[in-house]
Amino acid sequence: xxxxxxxxxxxxxxxxxxxxxxxxxxxxxxxxxxxxxxxxxxxxxxxxxxxxxxxxxxxxxxxxxxxxxxxxxxxxxxxxxxxxxxxxxxxxxxxxxxxxxxxxxxxxxxxxxxxxxxxxxxxxxxxxxxxxxxxxxxxxxxxxxxxxxxxxxxxxxxxxxxxxxxxxxxxxxxxxxxxxxxxxxxxxxxxx
Length: 192
Hints:
Largest sheet: 6 strands, mixed
Structural class: alpha+beta
Shape: globular
Number of strands: 13
């Protein structure tokens, strides 16, 4: 059973599986599910993708293979630029960095969603599947709150193809796509 909470509740009161609802500054309605308790606070992922799709890279032609990573991606820049700017102050004021690079938003990794690296490069053994993602329905996302089923990006570059990245297919299964294609985005953020 999912519990709807408002942001006036202390983050310590959140439990994995809880869902919060809020509007982005442009009026887009979103929901975020608590997926992992951390010492710093609670980690959330949007229940559905943002209405707008994004490529991982706008153009990878001529790029050195070693530079084609999530950390160098156009999507990461969009998340921590135009996308974070759309989050309401009530949420942004409670966010803390989700990584050591100081990012306030990121996307999920393949292992966090599936518990293993099916297509993407291997992750640290410390990375575990988020408990809610054991249910297929929690892996399925829609484009925006009312849109169709959506494919969405994961941060892992493909094991064999530098131009590909892992993603979640519209039915909740593991897949991959070409980095310059546009796919859905499920931002991840940490509230303290």
